[in-house]
Write a structure and sequence with these properties.
The complex is a heterodimer of chains A (417) and B (151). Chain A is mostly beta strands and 417 residues long. In chain A, 6% of the residues lie in helices and 33% in strands. Chain B is α+β, with helices and mostly antiparallel strands and 151 residues long. Chain B has one domain. Classes of the chains: A mainly beta (417), B alpha+beta (151). Chains A and B meet through strand 5 and helix 2 of A and helix 2, helix 3, strand 5, strand 6 and strand 7 of B.
């Protein structure tokens, strides 16, 4: 977005990193599978294993001194469309199965990517609503490489671009902007959730039903606009040539608090030998809400519970109902005097049910050491939903399928574990 | 008399749903709160409060809880997008925004919001394309009404 940097900047270390990730935008590149995914079978399957790390993230040090807790980070390589040299690898990208679409902070992007324009030739800018705030910034196009997978001409959001500094009031009415590193806590968000696009059909229709996610921004000011499905910021996985029907996340189990853990983000479900459903139970989702049902101690969250790697804890009910006190200084977390071993039952719309054991620890104690990033037992109160955040992924293989894509689990979308 | 009836009809026809105030306001000091939502409205009453439910064409459902004293003491919402919180929270919006900002410096990551101040509670939950939340003023809850009753 910054013309001064249009010709890019490649340091030696960056060039080395790019060489190690099979270049970018190169159709002919074929490097050995170094991901440890054990690809076998006919042909030469691409490497579909991307390393992810639960660590304190890019805001751990000064001046932020705000270490991330229970966030899974990875890196992505983005190139100017069609280029194999104007590329950049960006780390500190949060892996989020609760949203769809790749979003990168403008401050982390050193290459120039072409701005998407609307039907009137005006730049398209997005106001994307997360649960705890909004991201504002232009839609740009890139060629993405992650593991051995490539998504060509991928629309992404560039968050916090200086080209569009003024966030419209209609956008901030949806939440507080998280448009810089201090507020986002990550260099970007890799949304690999159950939706194929970030908005879907609602954004293709003008008038009162439009949720106001996409804007056109001529010099005179920004106005809400319609955005076709193919122009919207999609789940990047659907643009992969193969392995495009979902992802699975594998993380080791965690006892208490640990400084960091490493696991895998594996692309595709049942497309290679390393991503078969195996004995996992498939829980299909209510397609309109993207939720399933969780029953906890007689309280049923009917079609209003979800699994979300982008939430940093398990969030459910309230202190009055659970009897678990909230922390005095951080009322958004629970602080029981001793660790609680609890269980809840998940139910898919397909009738599948299964019990889940989980722990609720004292968040004050668990987060006392600022070097600890992987914490089992972080939980807090929530209103009306049961949010299975990152601790749910510890010690599990969790599949997230994408709507509209063929998948071995049958009806989509679903979660399986 | 006739002109008066016609006048009332005119008001009803041009305002398909009554205008409600935002959090902390009263229903007599009517605001143009729902104009943007362009939706249908339903009212239900109990001994403790009246609920005005507005279903907007965006799919967002908003409930405004009005006390017997005529004050909006709580609002709740559910739908594929966030409601206009600036409008719904009214004079409490700035307090809410400041607290969200302050919390980010200590929160260590993303997740549902719980803003708990002595005079204001705001919760925001869910994920993109499936949000819900509520806001209320604890001191304004009518006797016998618990926050858990506000859904």
């Amino acid at each position: 977005m910054n013309r001064a940097l249009q010709h890019g900047f490649l340091s030696l270390s960056l060039a080395a990193a790019l060489a190690a990730t099979a270049g970018c935008g190169a159709n002919s590149s074929s490097t050995p599978n170094t991901g440890g995914g054990g690809n076998t079978g006919s042909g030469s399957p691409v490497s579909n294993v991307q390393s992810i790390t639960v660590n304190t993230g890019p805001t751990a040090g000064a001046p932020y001194n705000n270490p991330y807790v229970d966030g899974a980070f990875t890196s992505v390589t983005v190139c100017a469309p069609g280029s194999t040299s104007n590329c950049q690898t960006i780390n500190g990208i949060l892996v989020d199965t609760g949203s769809s679409g790749l979003r990168i902070l403008s401050s982390a992007l050193t290459i120039s990517l072409p701005q998407q324009t609307g039907s009137n030739g005006n730049p398209v800018v997005e106001c994307f609503p997360f649960v705890d705030g909004v991201t504002w910034g232009p839609v740009a196009t890139t060629d993405l490489t992650i593991a051995g997978e490539k998504a060509k001409s991928l629309p992404i959001q560039v968050i916090g671009s200086s080209n569009f500094p003024d966030v419209p009031e209609s956008c901030t009415s949806n939440g507080m902007p998280e448009d810089d590193l201090a507020n986002l806590g990550a260099n970007g968000i890799l949304g690999v959730g159950t939706y194929a696009q970030d908005c879907g059909s609602a954004c293709t229709v003008s008038g009162a039903s439009n949720p106001g996610v996409y804007y056109e921004c001529p010099a005179s000011g920004c106005e809400v606009t319609t955005e076709s499905i193919s122009s919207q910021v999609p789940n990047p996985v659907i643009l992969f040539a193969t392995d495009n029907n979902g992802v699975l996340i594998q993380l080791p189990s965690v006892s208490g608090a640990e400084t960091s853990i490493t696991g895998s983000l594996i692309f595709g479900i049942g497309t290679q030998s390393n991503n078969a459903l195996g004995s996992a139970t498939v829980y299909t989702l209510d397609p309109s809400s993207g939720n399933f049902t969780t029953v906890y101690n007689g309280f049923s969250y009917t079609n209003s519970s979800f699994i979300d790697s982008g939430s940093n804890g398990i969030y459910f009910l309230d202190s009055n109902t659970t009897g678990i006190p909230a922390c005095a200084d951080a009322t958004y977390w629970y602080c029981p005097s001793s660790t609680q071993n609890l269980s809840a039952t998940n139910q898919g719309t397909n009738g599948a049910t299964g019990s889940v054991s989980f722990v609720v620890g004292n968040a004050d104690t668990l987060t006392a050491n600022p070097s600890d990033a992987a914490i089992n037992g972080l939980a807090g109160p929530n209103s009306g939903t049961f949010d299975w955040g990152l601790p749910f992924f510890f010690g599990r293989t969790v599949f997230t399928s994408i709507e509209g894509q063929n998948s071995p689990g049958g009806q989509v979308p679903y979660w399986a574990y | 008399m006739n002109s008066r009836i016609l006048g009332s009809l005119f008001v009803i026809l041009t305002l398909p749903f009554p205008l409600l105030a935002s959090l902390g306001g009263d229903t007599t000091s009517v605001q143009a709160d729902q104009e943007k939502m362009q939706g249908s409205r339903q009212t239900t009453s109990s001994d403790s409060f009246t609920v005005h439910e507005i279903q907007a064409s965006t799919g967002i459902a908003v409930k405004e809880y009005v006390s017997p004293a005529g004050k909006v003491f709580a609002v709740t919402w559910q739908g594929p997008a966030h409601p206009d919180l600036r409008q719904l929270l009214g004079t409490y919006f700035d307090q809410y925004s400041q607290e969200v900002q302050a919390q980010r410096a200590h929160r260590h990551g993303h997740g549902p919001l719980l803003i708990q101040l002595p005079g204001l509670v705001v919760q925001s939950a869910g994920h993109p394309r499936s949000f819900l939340g509520r806001a209320y003023v604890p001191q304004m809850l009518p006797a016998g009404v618990r926050a858990e009753d506000l859904r």
